[in-house]
Design a protein that fits this description.
The protein has about 775 residues and is of the alpha/beta class. Helix content is about 35%, strand content about 15%. The chain is built from 31 helices and 31 strands. The strands form nine sheets. Strands 5-4-17-16-15-6 form a six-stranded mixed beta sheet. It has a six-stranded mixed β-barrel with strand order 24-30-27-29-28-31. Helix 14 packs parallel to helix 20. The longest helix is centred in the middle third of the chain and has 22 residues. The radius of gyration is 25 Å and the shape is globular. It starts with 20 loop residues before the first strand and ends in an 8-residue tail after the last helix.
Length: about 775
């Protein structure tokens, strides 16, 4: 069993005798959360319906796909937590809002706010009392619609959470385009937008080239910047199976994550009997923060040198030159670049030894089929796109795209973050899609590009936003530069939040503010007397149906689709080609419109959904069709740098990695414990290498202030963090998101995609005085 360590004891070491990820502790955690939400029986019965193809509902947590034949218990610990949090017996009623002002609630922790339970009634902010008052739906629609009609549409922002269904997202973007806006910030802009931009530059498509079955045939799986045990735990079952059949798993991560070291599969009897688990990573490389480009190019350098030697001496070539000749361009330039890189420079920038990098390369050589997976440890850097290009180079060198057991696997976050983009949530939609919308609905979509999350934040800072409408999520808690941006929100004339539970973004509001409560995915959605099915697209391009099982938390809730339709009727002039009420009565009608707008992608949408409950979208690169300008895949690489951020090895400051705790999903904090990292009862910790603690004159347990380094002259600090000794590279720090987001300038983002650079924040650390400690209780996620 895990136990609470002292501050100076090494956390995160994940040694031989430490508990594995998963196992009985995972089962215990699941039941604990059902009990905390007072739904032990209802919660457990729901888990029999989660991720089931025949009338079940899709997990509201991550986007990991389901197998073709799901087992009876097709869920993980974190999926169970998400269901418990959603199915809670607690309710946030008008009586609650009558008792608490917005100013008072702002002082509550994020955990405490959401812990109040499900929203039950539509609410409108009352500036006289500083409280939310109940309002009926039709009045809310009318008032919001009348206000939006008066605004410049280019100053209207429509945000979308990855929880939103395909049907709701399609109507949401249609509503926005009919208003006249082109501003569609969405949660992808804060996580995998880098993938969406960089992948097409390499291979012509911005999605995974793998399917789940590929993991059953892979010989070697590389994991870059992805903590599957916490962020996509069902992935651990496949890694567990891969290791048992002899495949290698090569992990690159500054932190030793428990489940990636050793994992006991809760659905494997042997593991549950022994609770010993299976070693997952055959190699675990703790590279420096920002060292991925150097590490991957070091692997490529080793492979090229080995291949050159084989060529010169008549040996077996290790690079697939036939594939490269037929399907790619740019290889020779990339190969020469790698040949010229000095090993000393690679080691210094990666934080790894030549021997360690060579060991990883040898695993690649031994494998016939390689999969590369990555997460936000790759995407959330200022040169995150360069990171992804190097991963693709590694795959292309072996012809590891377009065949069974191999490919590129970006591990997406929220359950429908990919689907929302596919159906049209995009601030830079293409002419073909927009022209089709014009034709179908008799409108004229704005062609110029609009705002993503970063550009939306900058518009708020310039006081150039008249209305912010959020479809789910917790926008103002998830963004960079929180304090600066949020200080300007009160100047926005209108904010509207569509949500299931109270969160901080509902308290950071405009001059007029509305809170509209929506059905959750676990709940029955009945329209015109018929239970409706929504769809989502998982991270491997499978579109599947989802039907809720619970009665709604309140009779006053409405579906996201019904809310969009109500807002549209109140905002827009009648249009003979868009009958919003008719569309909202039967979601199959919306799917017909999605098909009509993208017939090549969604052909026979309803028919395919009815036949099997799921279908796979065609991905050209799986068939080695490259939708690039040249018709070939590209070897791309930066010639002038080896680090994905502005900081160089040896800089005097630290590099801070923002991470998610094990009892956390995005900005939702289920508890203050992170048992996978030996941290309990708090999130206000700063993880620091013991040698750095000693070198800089600190002691474990010291309370410190973090100060961001930036070129804009703006002071950004967060305080109240306790130093704990942690197993991570020197000059590297770790702390929880979103507690440290205020340290990130909104301008610190990937150069190609605008994704915030949250995985490498340059900071200085200073001791807090006794007076500061007494006055400062830290950020509000902990309370």
């Amino acid at each position: 069993m895990s136990h609470q360590l002292k501050d100076d004891e090494l956390h995160g070491k994940q040694g031989e005798h430490d508990a594995p990820g998963g196992g009985w502790q995972s089962v215990q955690a699941t039941e604990t959360h059902f009990l905390r939400e007072k739904v032990p029986f209802k919660g457990n019965s729901l888990m029999l319906k989660i991720n089931q193809p025949d009338g079940g509902f899709e997990c509201p947590s991550c986007a990991w796909p389901n197998p073709k034949k799901p087992g009876p218990l097709e869920f993980c610990e974190n999926g169970a937590k998400a269901v418990a949090w959603e199915a809670t017996a607690a309710r946030t009623t008008p009586e609650f809002f009558a008792q608490h002002s917005v100013s008072e609630l702002l002082a509550w922790s994020d955990h405490a706010l959401e812990k109040q339970g499900r929203l039950t009634h539509p609410m409108r902010y009352n500036p006289t009392t500083d409280k939310y008052d109940p309002i009926d739906w039709e009045t809310a629609y009318r008032e919001i619609g009348e206000r939006i009609q008066t605004y410049d549409p280019t100053r209207v922002e429509l945000y979308t959470s990855g929880r939103t269904s395909n049907e709701a997202a399609f109507l949401w973007q249609l509503y926005g385009r009919m208003i006249g806006t082109h501003n569609f910030p969405d949660c992808s802009n804060m996580c995998h937008e880098t993938t969406t931009v960089a992948l097409p530059q390499s291979i012509g498509v911005g999605k995974a080239t793998t399917v789940l079955e590929d993991f059953e045939h892979a010989d070697c799986i590389f994991l870059f910047g992805q903590n599957a045990g916490t962020n996509s735990p069902r992935m651990m079952g496949l890694l567990h199976e891969a290791r048992l059949r002899g495949a290698e798993v090569i992990t690159f991560n500054p932190l030793r994550e428990r489940a990636l070291v050793k994992f006991a599969n809760p659905q494997t009897p042997k593991d549950m009997l022994t609770n010993h688990g299976v070693p997952i990573s055959s190699q675990y490389h703790q590279l420096r923060i920002g060292g991925d480009i150097a590490a991957i190019q070091g692997i490529c350098k080793y492979l090229i040198a080995t291949d050159d030697n084989a060529r010169d001496n008549g040996g077996k070539r290790v690079i697939d030159h036939d594939f490269i000749h037929m399907h790619t361009d740019g290889f020779e330039a990339f190969a020469e670049h790698c040949r010229q890189l000095p090993w000393e420079r690679i080691e210094r920038h990666s934080g790894l030894t030549r021997a360690a990098i060579s060991e990883a390369a040898e695993a690649w050589i031994r494998a016939e089929r390689v999969i590369c997976c990555w997460g936000m440890g790759i995407t959330q850097h200022m040169r995150g796109g360069d990171n992804i290009h190097q991963i693709l180079n590694l795959l292309l060198m072996g012809g590891h795209i377009g065949r069974r057991g191999a490919g590129a696997c970006p591990v997406r976050g929220h359950s429908n973050v990919q689907g929302d983009r596919t159906v049209g949530i995009f601030h830079k939609s293409g002419k073909t899609f927009l022209s089709k919308l014009d034709e179908l609905f008799g409108i004229e979509c704005r062609r110029e590009h609009g705002h993503d999350v970063a550009l939306c934040c900058e518009a708020i800072l310039r006081d150039e936003v008249d209305a912010f409408l959020g479809m789910g999520g917790n926008f103002f808690r998830a963004i960079a530069d929180q304090a600066r941006v949020c200080a300007h929100v009160e100047k926005i004339p209108l904010t509207v939040q569509i949500a299931t539970k109270l969160n901080r973004s509902h308290l950071i509001h405009g001059q007029a503010a509305y809170l509209l409560p929506a059905l959750a995915r676990t709940e029955k959605d009945v329209q015109a007397g018929v239970e409706q099915t929504i769809t989502i697209e998982d991270g491997m391009c499978n579109v599947q149906g989802s039907k809720g099982a619970l009665e709604p938390a309140s009779q006053h809730l409405r579906s996201e689709i019904a809310i969009v339709a109500g807002l549209a009727r109140a905002t827009l002039a009648p249009n003979p080609k868009v009958d919003w009420a008719w569309l909202a009565e039967d979601y199959a009608r919306i799917r017909d419109k999605i098909e009509a707008s993208q017939p090549e992608t969604f052909y026979d949408f309803n028919q395919r959904l009815a036949a099997d409950g799921v279908f796979h979208l065609d991905i050209a690169a799986r068939d080695r069709v490259w939708n690039t300008d040249s018709g070939k895949a590209h070897f791309l690489f930066p010639q002038d740098h080896l680090t994905e951020d502005e900081s160089e090895p040896g800089d005097a400051h630290f590099q801070l990695l923002s991470i998610r705790g094990h009892d956390q999903y995005n900005t939702t904090i289920y508890s203050y414990d992170d048992r996978y990292r030996d941290i309990y009862g708090t999130r206000m910790v700063l993880m620091m290498n013991p040698r750095d603690i000693e070198k800089h004159g600190f002691e474990a347990g010291n309370k410190v202030t973090l100060s961001a380094l930036s070129d804009d002259g703006i002071e950004r600090t967060v305080s109240g963090f306790k130093i704990i000794a942690y197993d991570l590279p020197e000059n590297c720090l770790g702390a929880y998101y979103p507690e440290v987001n205020d340290l990130i300038p909104v301008a610190n983002r990937d150069t190609g995609s605008n994704t915030l650079a949250a995985k490498s924040i340059p900071v200085n650390v200073t001791l807090m005085s006794t007076e500061q400690i007494e006055a400062d209780t830290g950020l509000l996620a902990t309370g």
